[in-house]
Design goal:
The structure is a homodimer. Chain A is of the alpha/beta class and about 400 residues long. Chain A has 15 helices and nine strands. In chain A, the strands form two sheets. In chain A, strands 2-9-6-5-3-4 form a six-stranded parallel β-sheet, sandwiched between helices. In chain A, strands 7-8 form a two-stranded antiparallel ribbon. The longest helix of chain A has 23 residues. Strand 1 of chain A pairs antiparallel with strand 2 of chain B, so a sheet runs across the interface.
Chain lengths: ~400, ~400
């Protein structure tokens, strides 16, 4: 086990009706001016946004609004948000939505807290924010875990670069998590969320530290719960327990818990960022689903025992002690079949990605030759290209 | 799943050498005067205490000292600590030790933060602290989880009443957790710690909420990791990975995580508190070990499926779908054999408890007729007596 620091101060209010407490909580924290940040569509149609406005007004909290965040949130919107935050002197950004809205809010918080620094510099890792305007969340999608994580990912629409960074200031102050708000999430988006949640745990699980028994067991247990809940929510979108399991597992999967004491680099996420950075129509979870099993088959020979443990403990594959590679591959196969059962893509061809652009994607993923990705197997440009190619053909 | 609130702000620095950072961290937080609180024996002999003093001096932090905390910490010591805290104007209490020292420090913090209220009133639940002097921890024992929990348990030595209560102010500000500091823990204390850690998760697991798939899976995974690590640490006290697993599992098992979304009442802990309250020579973990399986056999007929799930998932007992009671009892039996393998007592006779005092213990456990304990099966005085009697004979 590696040394680690655990510090997750985000306060979670989880369960039915928790979103109703937004105004009251914000007042208790002493904030008077808020930027209300959201996407569009469902939060408007469902009446949630009206209820949030009402909750703020009831407590005498002033607010400005910035809606219209899209999936794969963009820098242009972040810049508008920063400007509004400064003009309105907002003390808190209240994100109502899923990961895209929350990440956009975090980036706005970074920028508004440090008006003299161009916010994109943080994403390029050319600067580190020393403070930020805090973010609170009303969660409407179980997927990104951004409601409890320290990370934020933004796409620069001018050059298609999708970049993320972690900061303690990115942990939301509080998050109100009512699983009922996800009853209306489409089958496709539910599948994307399930894959994303699993991937946050899997990417940590397939790091390169050997001993981490507590973290391993927590990760395996979480995966088993998500697999079961993902299936149930796919079949019955209003299954409260399944929606609740996905929502809470989503928060736990990316807050750090499932990687404590482990060294890891989220390689599949890095490969996927180039995909949805270049093709913003590709949902993050769908991109991960199309890449993961090819990535796993590529790196697996470097750590067959680890993948065999995964197959055995998570998918109940019988362990082949003589030939752990067999158990390992069976576990990867079971994952692929599961993703397919949720109607998720398992190849890049299904996503209509153009193979002639793989070169450019790999080039961007190395930050134009500036980095390789450490891992069970280190990935340079050639290895990245190989994984993109392996992931292409429809199965 | 029940609605829940998650709020665990304690910052953990986990791993080798973390205790060296005490002085530096305390200075970063801005504290200048500290009450250094500890037990005796091993922290002195090992030189740890000297290293802590040095770490404080190196950062120019003033400190007063109060050592001598015993297992099952007592109110008298707490009162002395409160007086010292007030006299010395201590801004932080630094607990160096295990659960007894940490709990004593928390109670001192409650009292010193509210000098106009008698601290025992909080334990009798006649008052609620509105503030407290904060506590930080250098952990030397994997057991209580007090380094991250909101609870504190103190014995009033004047009447033998052992009482605990939870408060958000009881969450330590930070805890430095170096598993190497537990290498010297005796085989007996390691067994007590392993049982205590398991019990913190088991008591939540055997609450009465039916659906909580994520929490269930986390609990089951944690238990599996603890069972394995407890065995390894018993056989090789200097197995770093085993000691690290026990230490981190100890913190997670009582910080709330393994009970989120579940309704529960820690019945075995309540039964045990009367035991070690009346016989302070009995270690808490040993008392739990002697009581748990009898308690489980007593309440099991009210929820055989739950106990069967435990047997299957934690102990790999084959599920008997026709007769889950069989699987349930096999799981309890496996637990008992495991406790025995760690040289832990599995009967009250081994602990030389006098059966003629069961009546008094049960009476105290009902707070003299003022309460019953809700659970899978509600426990009144008669049921408590029955469990004490079942737990008596040596097996």
């Amino acid at each position: 086990m590696e040394n680690f620091e655990y510090s997750i101060p985000t306060r979670i209010l989880f369960g039915k009706g928790t979103e109703e407490q937004a105004g009251k909580l914000i007042r208790e924290y002493g904030f008077r001016k808020v930027l209300l940040h959201y996407g569009g569509g469902s939060v408007v149609r469902s009446g949630l946004l009206d209820r949030v406005r009402e909750s703020l007004r009831a407590e005498g909290i002033e607010f400005a609004e910035l809606g219209g965040v899209q999936a794969n949130p963009v820098l242009g919107m972040v810049r508008r948000g920063i400007q509004m935050c400064l003009e309105e002197k907002a003390e808190l950004i209240l994100a109502v939505g899923g990961g895209s809205v929350i990440d956009s809010a975090k980036a706005i918080g970074d920028g508004a807290g440090n008006p003299d620094t161009d916010v994109w510099k943080y994403f390029l890792k050319e600067a580190v924010p020393q403070k930020a305007v805090p973010v609170a969340v009303i969660l409407t999608l179980a997927a990104s875990g951004s409601e409890m994580s320290d990370s934020a990912v933004i796409t620069n629409e001018e050059n298609g670069l999708k970049r993320g960074f972690g900061s303690p200031f990115h942990r939301p102050l509080f998050a109100l998590c009512n699983p009922e708000l996800t009853f209306s999430v489409s089958r496709f988006q539910t599948g994307c969320g399930t894959v994303d949640i699993m991937m946050h745990t899997l990417e940590r699980y397939f790091g390169w530290t050997k001993d981490s028994s507590v973290t391993d067991r927590l990760a395996e247990g979480l995966l088993k719960a998500v697999i079961e809940a993902g299936r149930k929510a796919d079949q019955n979108p209003e299954d409260y327990e399944a929606r609740a399991a996905l929502m809470w597992a989503g928060s736990l999967s990316h807050n750090g818990l499932t990687g404590l004491g482990r060294a890891y680099m989220m390689q599949v996420h890095q490969l996927e960022h180039e995909l949805s950075g270049m093709y913003p129509r590709i949902a993050h979870g769908a991109g991960l689903s199309a890449l993961f099993c090819s990535w796993a088959r590529f790196v697996c020979p470097a750590a067959p025992e680890r993948f065999a443990q995964y197959g055995q403990r998570v998918w109940d594959v019988e362990m082949n002690v003589e030939n752990p590679m067999e158990t390992a591959l069976a576990g990867i196969q079971a994952t692929e079949e599961y993703f397919r059962s949720l109607n998720m893509p398992i190849s890049l061809e299904e996503l209509e990605v153009e193979p002639e652009r793989f070169e450019e994607m790999a080039e961007k993923c190395t930050n134009f030759g500036a980095r390789t990705l450490p891992g069970i197997r280190e990935l340079g440009k050639e290895e990245m290209l190989e994984i993109y190619r392996m992931a292409y053909p429809r199965r």
